[in-house]
Amino acid sequence: MPHPTPLRRLLTRRRVVLACAAVTVLAAAAALLLAAPTTEVPGRALLVAGARLHPRPREVPRAAAAGRSPDDAPSLPPAPAPPPPPLNAKAGLPSKISPAPSMFSAPVPSPAENFDDGSTEEPEHPDMKENPLKESAPFLQEPISSGPPTRSSDISEPLDKSGNAEPPPRPEMPLWSTTADEELIYAKKEIADAPLVVGDPDLYAPLFRNISAFRRSYELMERLLKVFIYHDGAKPIFHSPELKGIYASEGWFMKLMEADQNFVVKDPNRAHLFYLPYSARQLEHNLYVPGSNTLDSLSIFVKNYIDMISAKFPHWNRTKGADHFFVACHDWGPYTTKLHDELRKNTIKALCNADVSEGVFIRGRDVSLPETYIKSARRPVRDIGGKPAAERSILAFFAGQMHGRVRPVLVKYWGGKDADMRIYTRIPRQITRRMNYAKHMKSSKYCICPMGYEVNSPRIVEAIYYECVPVIIADNFVLPFDDVLDWTAFSVVVAEKDVPRLKEILLSIPENRYITMRSNVKKVQRHFLWHTKPVKYDIFHMILHSVWFSRVNHIRCTK
């Protein structure tokens, strides 16, 4: 047999080197996944676990003091359940996912965290509606072009006569029934027949769509609800709450949910709901490749995580994800679901970016999550309140960067043109010396809350904190806790096309009506406050109730 030529030896060595490099990468990925804690399932052998997630940041350091604006919730006899179907013996994350370079290193600071002007705005990036994401194969690819990411719903959904996306067909009935299903059916009937509530000292009826149904549902949640939390997945994407900034809602919910002893159970067979504890904020922070101009790496990671969960445990497949939920305040949260149909269509998604026009958020099933700007993780509730109605001398106030389609129009018509309308891109320095951003909100009758790049804004909750009536300008936005709260009682919603008539609309509101709304803002405030130890009817319980209420409403009787 002839001896190999030098060229052939060189090619053979290169193949060996490439093969060794591939084995090293796969071994590192396997080690990372195996390092994640596993979820205990009684009486069932577990398979290999692992995964992690996270979305886009919009931090808000040193804001209010510098005069800037933040931008930008009777027991039944047990029914024996048939044994679950066998698990896939080859469970685990697909090998074709390639981690972003930052996945194994310490997270780099968010662009918003690097602002040195005290701004609480989100970092600059183009409007996703105008720059849709480039479609690609369901595998990580090389960066397409330089520049910030773009996003848009690329999900083609049928539209109703109003132009809104119609809900997809109701999910199929569970593969088998559980005691938890029977309890949900019982709760659904109890809520439908809720006794009339009159003069409840703990709840103010005008704030609610139906106070009788809400109170009965809340009582049943406290008594019946059990939540199972998947322990699979490594930090920082899983089990790593971020408690400061404008995306803090998802972090605070994660922290309080995982520490809860009233609702959380270790036995998944008792659970009504299954929590997927990943952070959309951390997905962006750890997986997004700057300059790639695509969110594919995030979407693929989420898809692989759900595939692993559904292969390893029987619970997802029983309902096709209808009893699972996740909480994401980062703007990219909805878009990371695009590669997994069951996650996008069936799962209960608690999202700050609650835009019904994009075919991802489903009104009636999904939950509009309040976006709260938290300045201190130790004291999430501070600097609450404002001047009495009679001492609020400013008709309307807004200050912020020109993000999205609405704000430039707002400034065009009202910026520096009317003494009653304090509309700024940035509050002038000579004014901030006397009255900073927070003082403006505390001294204004109406606080203008226009959408930024997305429909949601932390200004809405911030206005409630400062007892200023929020004026919401964001078409297609489902307001937080819209399932139970009547926002007409404590806010004003203005169509985007009516921005030129904004002052006319506000002046047309009678004074006694304004005083009532402002009083209601103060009363509804308790439902939007975070506490280090949750209290009844606070924002943690309101979010959890909205998830519970959605699941109850969509439970189906078995055949």
TrEMBL record:
The keyword Metal-binding does not apply. One of its GO terms (molecular function) is glycosyltransferase activity. The keyword Nucleus does not apply. Residues 62-74 have a biased composition (Low complexity). Residues 122-133 have a biased composition (Basic and acidic residues). Residues 143-155 have a biased composition (Polar residues). It comes from the Eukaryota. It holds the Pfam family Exostosin_GT47. Signal peptide: none annotated. PROSITE patterns: TAT. Residues 222-507 form the Exostosin GT47 domain. Its main location: Golgi. Residues 75-87 have a biased composition (Pro residues). It is a single-pass type II membrane protein. One of its GO terms (cellular component) is Golgi membrane. Residues 58-175 are annotated as: Disordered. It is found in: Golgi apparatus membrane. Keywords: Glycosyltransferase, Golgi apparatus, Signal-anchor, Transferase, Transmembrane. PANTHER family: EXOSTOSIN HEPARAN SULFATE GLYCOSYLTRANSFERASE -RELATED, OS01G0107700 PROTEIN. Belongs to the glycosyltransferase 47 family. This is Exostosin GT47 domain-containing protein. It comes from Triticum aestivum. The lineage of its organism: Eukaryota, Viridiplantae, Streptophyta, Embryophyta, Tracheophyta.
